[in-house]
Amino acid sequence: MLRGGYGIFFLPLAIARRENLVEATATGSSPFLGSLDGGRTPYRVLSNPFPDGITQPVGRDANLQRVLTGQVIPTTVAFSEHAYSQQWNFNVQRNLPGNSLVEVAYVGLKGTKLPVNVYPSNTLSAETLRLGTALVAQTPNPFFGLVSRGVLSTPTVAKGQLLRPFPQFDNVTVRGFFIGNSNYHSMQLKVQKRFQAGAGVLLSYTASKLITDTESQTSWLEPTAVVQNPYDMRMERSLSSSDVPQRLVISGNFDLPFGRGKRFLGGAHGLGGKLISGWVINGIYTAQKGVPLFLTTAANQTGSLGGGSRPNSSGRSAELTGPAQQRLNRWFDPSQFSAPPAFTFGNLSRTLPDVRGPGINNVDFSIFKNTAFGPEQRFMFQFRAEMYNLFNRVEFALPGTAFGTPQFAVISSQNNDPRLIQLALKFIF
To answer: What is the maximum alpha-carbon separation in the chain?
Structure first.
């Protein structure tokens, strides 16, 4: 049997934007002005972080632009783009002898105008960064006297601030900026075998690749990479941090052939027949390769005033091999990375193309006992014993990814729970 399909699906704005669309599109905050010269010397201290007070709510002030001058501005775009995805698939399905089925499918997806979680809109370009240390030199502040707090409240200001696209503001970040793209291609294999007496096995295998230039909207839930240079989004195109190149799942359920009406001891009756009849076992085995890693630097020396920072790569692979337990303190080779010179962007891609986090190798198992009784066997007690992570295998968490920290390339925690066993008794009537 041959099957295929194609569809276009638009992402609702309620999902694409995390904000309520009827709220004001800009808000002010009270930034802590720690330094005037790029972190070289302190300016404010934690014992008195806001000596000039905090920013008051803007309300319906007609002078909103002036009120917000000098502030950090998170906002949404004024126009309404619609993110959408095109999805297509083609599969071949074949029934085989022995009550078996095999299916092979190609599945693809193209995402267009996807929302970028937080897009820094007030950063300096790579060309401007060539000015180097001149960007932190203090120059007369044209906004002095107009701003009561923040980076523009002092008589002098760093030259880089005045070269921003919106020099009257501090950081400006746009949420739900619809410029992202994604490409997904996969081969999906399914093999199913049904046995007599209520048993079956299902094998599912997927080989795939997901390439994107943006990440999930739920940065609080999933790891995401910050845009390094918003003027060159082509450099953001890489493997997605949720790319899983191979995944295998084998599941099966078996009614044990013992007891009344079964192949063995089919004539058993009475209490003995109740004890040996009605046993069912289930199992799920999952194997999956790890996801790509995205690296950052502990100290952002780019001077871009809002963009991300990544290390430089030596051009050689940092991948290491061997048992996971022997690589926890050195999951990949950290010597293949270095800090980029000040006022430059690192040459590393958004995610590493050849180094991944730990994968999954897990078995879940359960056993049921169904005991029917009463008139016409209308009632039933069901006993369930379920064991998650049956062999108590550790799924290690991702290694440290911030270059310049002691945790870089070190795995210090795990993602999964140890073996978990739960028992239940159910009465069905």
So the answer is: 98
Taking the CA atoms of the chain, what radius of gyration do you get in angstroms?
A: 29
Q: What is the SS3 assignment for 286?
A: strand
Closest CA to 207 of 238, 248, 174, 239: 248
**Contact, 269 vs 359, CB < 8 A?**
no
Query: Of 274, 283, 285, 284, nearest to 383 (Cα)?
Result: 274
Closest among 286, 290, 285, 287 to 359, alpha carbons compared: 290
Print burial letters for 59-93: b (CB count within 10 Å at least 16), e (below 16). Answer: eeeeeeeebbbbbbbbbbbeeebebebeeebebee
Pick the most confident of 10-14, 169-173, 251-255, 401-405: 401-405
Q: Rounded distance, CA 300 to CA 161, Å?
A: 16
Residues 6+ apart with CB under 8 A from 76: 17, 19, 25, 174, 175, 176
Phi, psi of 276 (to 5 degrees): -95, -5
The predicted-structure confidence for 132-149, as pLDDT tens digits, reads as follows 999 999 999 998 888 877
Residue found by looking up tokens 């060159």 in the block: 232
What tokens were used for 25?
């599109």
Express as a percent the part of the chain with pLDDT over 90. Answer: 55
Whole-structure pTM value: 0.80
Query: Cβ–Cβ contacts within 10 Å for residue 114, how many?
Result: 24
Torsion of CA 289, 291, 292, 295, to 10 degrees: -130
